[in-house]
Specification:
Layout (H helix, E strand, L loop, with lengths): L10 E5 L3 E5 L1 E7 L3 E6 L2 E16 L4 E14 L8 H8 L2
Antiparallel strand pairs: 1-2, 2-6, 3-4, 4-5, 5-6
Length: 94
């Protein structure tokens, strides 16, 4: 019998571009005050802004809370789990 792979729930709650609650997060690949790169159930998510901070990280539940000024959210498809975050950034800005 074949096992079908179903995507888990992924939600974003953004409040006044100052805080965000994210569910369905698989991993945090990189973060600094200018951008955060998350691997989610729906693909890679790049969050750009200023003074960004990860306030709470619970990977067992797939939850991340961030604070700071959020300027943009951008998704990209995940090609291979072995790809590095740097090569993903290169693909995003082609």
């Amino acid at each position: 019998m074949e096992e079908q792979k179903t995507a888990k729930s992924h939600k974003i709650l953004l409040s006044n571009r100052k805080s965000g609650n994210f569910t369905g997060v698989v991993d945090v690949l990189s973060f600094d005050v200018g951008e955060i790169l998350l691997e989610t159930e729906q693909g890679m998510l790049m969050i750009k802004g200023n003074d960004l901070h990860v306030n709470r990280l619970t990977l067992e539940k797939g939850e991340v809370d961030i604070a700071g000024r959020i300027d943009s959210l951008a998704y990209s498809e995940m090609k291979s789990p072995q790809k590095s975050a740097q090569s993903l950034l290169g693909r995003l800005f082609k």
